[in-house]
């Protein structure tokens, strides 16, 4: 998929998911470690997130990267009731992507328990 097509497919989806969660562009920009204008450009279909950013967005919104680019409008990655990911249903590419997402999230203090503990002890 070309960058132009990615931007046009993903922009409205990112905006919709952000609004569903009552987040501002600034809120999302902080979680993504980008400027607010970068988020605005994604949503305005002017730019597409990088592959790494798509993975991070998928983690933030609990959706698949396919969902973000408009390929799969029905499937959500995480079962909302159980919060369980059935990795056994993934092929090797899917498993590799899940590992990358996991490593990315674990390296980001916004998504780990350690950051919660540090913020409590700092406050």
Task: Describe this structure as you would to a colleague.
- With 123 residues, the protein is an all-alpha fold.
- The protein is 60% helix and 0% strand.
- It has seven helices and no strands.
- It has helices spanning 3-20, 25-32, 36-43, 51-61, 65-68, 92-106, 113-122.
- Helix 2 packs across helix 3 (36-43) and helix 4 packs across helix 6.
- The longest helix is centred in the N-terminal third of the chain and has 18 residues, at 3-20.
- It is globular and about 35 Å long.
- The model is unreliable at 77-82 and 118-123 (pLDDT under 50).
What descriptive keywords fit this protein?
123 residues, mainly alpha, 7 helices
Largest sheet composition? none
Number of strands: 0
Radius of gyration: 15 Å
Distance between the termini: 46 Å
Mean pLDDT: 79
Task: Indicate the proportion of strand residues.
Answer: under 5%
Count of helical regions: 7
State the oligomer: single chain
- Helix % is 55-70%
The coarse overall form would be globular
Spell out the helices and strands N to C: HHHHHHH
Secondary-structure content class: mainly alpha
Low-confidence stretches: 77-82, 118-123
């Amino acid at each position: 998929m070309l960058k132009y097509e990615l931007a046009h497919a993903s922009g409205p989806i990112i905006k919709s998911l952000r609004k569903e969660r009552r987040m501002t562009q600034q809120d999302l920009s902080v979680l993504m470690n980008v400027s607010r204008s970068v988020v605005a450009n994604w949503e305005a279909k002017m730019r597409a997130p990088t592959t790494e950013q798509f993975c991070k967005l998928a983690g933030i919104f609990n959706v698949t990267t396919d969902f973000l680019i408009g390929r799969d409008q029905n499937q959500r990655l995480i079962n909302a009731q159980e919060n369980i990911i059935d990795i056994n249903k993934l092929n090797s590419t899917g498993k590799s992507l899940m590992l990358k997402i996991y490593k990315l999230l674990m390296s980001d203090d916004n998504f780990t328990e350690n950051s919660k503990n540090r913020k409590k002890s700092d406050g």
